[in-house]
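Reading a protein record of the kind used here takes little practice once its layout is understood. An example of such a record is reproduced below.
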Amino acid sequence: MTAELVRGQNHPLPEVRLEIRVSAGTPLVAGATLGDEQGRVPGVEWVAHPGAPTLPGIEVSQQAAADHRLAVDLDALAPSVHRVTVLLALPSGHGGPGRFGAVAAPFVAVTGLDGTEVASYTLTDLEAESAVIALELYRRQGAWKVRAVGQGYAGGLAELFADQGLPQAQQLAGGIHEAVAQGLARSVSAPPPRLSDADRPRRTAAPASGPDQTHGGTPPQGLAGDTPSQQGHQPASPYGTTPPYGSSHDATPPDHASARHGGPVPTDPAPGGRPASPTTDSVNYSHPGRQTTAPPPPPPTAPPAQSGQPARPVAGDATGWSMEERLYNQVWGMFEDLARTTAAYRSAVDFAESRMEQELDRVLSDPRSRTGGQGDAARESARARHAQLVDQARAALDRDLAQLRAEADVVEPALPPAFASWDNPVWHGYRVPMEIPMALRLGDLHLPESDGVRIPMLVRLPLERGLWIDSGRSGSRGSLADSDELRRLALDTAVAIAARLLAVYPPGEFAVHVIDAAGAGTSALAPLVGAGVLTGPPAAGAAGVAEVLGRLTQRVDLVQMAIRGGAADALPPGFDTAEQLLIVNDFPHGFDDRAVTQLRYLADEGPAVGVHLMMVADRQEAAAYGPLLDPLWRSLLRLTPTPDDHLADPWVGHAWTYEPASVPPGSRVLHGVLTRVAEARRSWNR
């Protein structure tokens, strides 16, 4: 039976492996501090937060979200740790709520790994506080207990950390908010800075409903890349991870269609969604540094619009230092526009339904008007007003969608190969590039209300996390393909993504390894094998798995030691400094416990030193490992080989339908691209 705690109450913990679930009505930052016997936190290395989400025995979310799941293993904590403090904070500097008194009371629950609740606590009576200690897990006479705390701090995280004796409280608090703002360690980057009307001409759309409409609230949200039914975390933006908190939930919403059109839009601190990470070492696996000052505005190439008419869309109509960056920012603007206008439409429909229900309740509450002509007239009037509001909202949505379709029709043909779909003519004139692009297209995104508008899903390069191509079935997938067909489609998707990565990197700067232990992917892997772009034939059997994993694990160790020691020039002669991609097909076939451990190590440590993982697997087939592999799945960005609505964003809470970037049936474009890549590699190696 669940213990419903009140402030100050404690409860014994029957298990050492737990989850702490957080639910709130607005995105929050969740973290944890580890304390000694006196409850003091000696240093920043004792704090788990979005910029450093994992400590021994504790793992927190890597983003601000309305829902969180924090993993705790009390046995894995250091012996000197006697207290785990769970903290919540409102993100700062994004225009969202600045105090807990303006949002719904957060709810926290301690559960077992099977989801059984042990204890729960609702944080009430908060007002001006912007950070709060929710729970304490503490050791008493060899046993662990949980205590409901609810201690708030008007001074935010800095005051909270200072109260726990942390010397660098102010610096750490600033670093956490910067990590949330910049999207560090998160699956996808935040939208680039928005433009004002002075920067670029845009349409002005009418609001979707009457002046008495209020915001409908943020839906429950889940882990990065998954809907709440699958993970339970805040859904991550399919592009970015920093949600632009634009308005309070208790305020009247701004004009919904003005994300890029002069409305009240939040801005992110750096263009491109990710800070540069320069280093003095000769081996640098971070993204190339980019300018952080405001780039010049685009040239005024848009034809002047007639009075009262929206401006004609123009490709590259965004700020940026290059056409590539302008197109990237413009795609982001389209994504943001579609999210906002759809959110406003849904909010307007919810408002219309709520208003109709209230009017019908008033009719039914009066015995004199329940029956007869008066009641029928009142009900008919309520339904008519509902239909009118919904029609107005749909008309506004249709106007915005028409403008977005027109913009997509102009932007799509102008995209460079890294951003373009496989049926874009730009691939027929493809030439191997001499520099790494900003981002890579992994597929398309759309919403149910806007099936005709598809937004390219772009992720920044180099990849910050691995990819998981899910070959299993999901409850939301409408595909009628059987399990064998799903496995084939999943590997085809992986091959297409690998080919795209090879195509957008300069010669010799990207290498691909394949593990196909059972040999089940021979046919799908034929384009890569036949073109000769792999580092070697696909590894088969347990011996092949061990050899490839051992080689890549050693590579990660060597580069880490070189960079940490400031001796990148001390790497062995002939060491390949190219980015590495490992494709694992049909996992866990051929994997023993040691191989699984190495795979998890590559997923966690590899991206920082240029080793990336792409899993083609059905999670259910690896269920025998139990929760051991849960951190592996959480560390990867989940994609599907068929359309599926598993990607979502914490910004407005939409679940986006993802469609993979598939090669058109019968097309030879993949063969032609890989042939040119192979030729360029041979020329480069001469």
User: Anything to note?
Assistant: Residues 184-294 have pLDDT under 50 and may be disordered. The chain has ten helices and 21 strands. The radius of gyration is 26 Å. The longest strand covers residues 17-35.
